[in-house]
Design brief:
- The structure is a single chain.
- This protein is mainly alpha-helical and 114 residues long.
- It has a two-stranded antiparallel sheet with strand order 1-2.
- Helix 2 packs antiparallel against helix 4 and helix 3 packs antiparallel against helix 4.
- The longest helix has 28 residues.
- 7% of the residues are buried.
């Protein structure tokens, strides 16, 4: 009986490995998330009241840099004025940022160029 169970296990289809593109996507997102942790964002207002955003470094993706500035500026506009509050607000927004960038990268790879 034990031999039969072992033979059935051998005949069971193996779990499929994720496609290489999924692996590449996961690696890209991991690298991006790591870069996000290393970047500081400064949001200021000029004399005309317009918000300006500066990053301490680029993520390597212009679109992500822009999204990060938008998210941080939104937090400041919502009244977050301490570094701690702004950081917490941006941390809350990061899953959405990463999802948007993932979708952007998938579209770029597919050639649809969002």
């Amino acid at each position: 009986m034990m031999l039969l169970a072992a033979m059935l296990l051998l005949q069971a289809p193996a779990e499929a490995e994720p496609p290489d593109s999924d692996f590449d996507e996961v690696q890209d997102i991991t690298v991006i998330a790591s870069k996000l942790r290393q970047i500081s964002v400064a949001v200021t207002r000029n004399a005309q009241g317009k918000y300006q955003c500066d990053l301490s470094a680029s993520t390597g993706l212009t679109k992500l840099d822009g999204e990060l500035c938008k998210a941080t500026t939104r937090c400041v506009r919502k009244g977050k004025d301490s570094e701690k509050d702004v950081k917490a607000c941006v941390e809350k927004a990061k899953p959405t940022l990463i999802a948007r960038i993932r979708d952007y990268l998938v579209a770029q790879r597919a050639g649809t160029g969002v």
